[in-house]
Amino acid sequence: MLTASSIAAVALLGAALGLALERVAAMLSDGQPAPGRRGALSAAVAAAVAPLLARSAASTAQLLPAAALLCVLFTAALTDLETRRIPNRLTGAGLLVMIALTALFEPNFVAERLLFASLVFAFFLAAALVRPGGLGLGDVKLAVVIGAALGAASVVAIAFAFSIGALVGAAIALARGWRHARAVALPLAPFLAAGSALTLLFGG
Predict the structure, then answer these.
(1) Which residues have CB under 8 Å from 7's CB, separation 6+?
(2) What is the pLDDT at residue 34?
(3) Closest listed residue to residue 86, CA positions, set 201, 192, 12
(4) Per-residue confidence (pLDDT) for residue 188, from 0 to 100
(5) Gyration radius (Cα) of the chain, Å
(6) Are 69 and 149 in contact (CB under 8 A)?
(7) How far is 36 from 39, CA to CA, in rounded Å?
(8) Contacts (Cβ under 8 Å, ≥6 apart) of 17
(9) Among 45, 86, 90, 93, whose CB has the most other CB atoms within 10 angstroms?
């Protein structure tokens, strides 16, 4: 059970991490760290998520892989929003980290999570080939990281992601009309990050 002081400390650590990930995203995007509102928003989101994650994790074996996954997804969301790209070095490093952490903390789940990573890869690659403008290869690779981290729960995370995306699309359509909504290309990484966060925080 987290005390008020520990919640404040974890939230402060989360805010600092959010700002650090903003810098990492800027470097991966060959840009400058975003000052002002976006930096403050990144810090606020990370500060809100950090205590929830600390409270939901039953042990270090759960906390560290979950935190690592959210760091990868948060950075991917920032780069996708900024450049509509998800760097290969981010997804490649994220995949290696997820496999290594699973092997270290939960070795019995390595085979299952690699299986789901492969299944997610096949699903997203097929979707990208069927609709080339809808999904990019960066989205495919990021989904593989989620599969390797969450295993069977990645199905729930991806379902959440598409559901949130559909709600946002519907909101745009209601506000601006269906024709405008169809022309809007929404980046997928923020929705994958949100779906995975919901799964980790409230998936039991």
Answers:
(1) 51
(2) 56
(3) 192
(4) 93
(5) 17
(6) yes
(7) 6
(8) 46, 50, 71
(9) 86
pLDDT in tens, 128-178: 888 776 788 999 999 999 999 999 999 999 999 999 998 988 887 787 766
Give the span between the Cα atoms of 146 and 68, in whole angstroms.
Answer: 11
The phi-psi region of residue 34 (left if phi > 0; otherwise alpha if psi is between -120 and 50; otherwise beta) is beta
Q: What number of other Cβ atoms are within 10 A of residue 4's Cβ?
A: 7
Range of weakest confidence among 60-69, 123-132, 158-167: 123-132
Q: Tell me what pLDDT residue 82 has.
A: 87
Question: Measured between alpha carbons, how far is 113 from 152 in angstroms, rounded to an integer?
Answer: 7
Burial code (b: 16+ CB inside 10 Å, e: under 16) for 149-159 equals bbbebbbebbe
Report how many domains make up the chain.
1
Alpha carbons 158 and 164: distance in angstroms, whole number: 10
- Of 84, 58, 63, 83, nearest to 1 by C-alpha is 58
Range of the domain at 157: 4-202
- All residues at 6 or more sequence positions from 88 whose CB lies less than 8 Å from its CB, including other chains: 138, 141
**Best CA proximity match to 76, nearest among 28, 136, 119:** 28
pTM of the complete model = 0.91
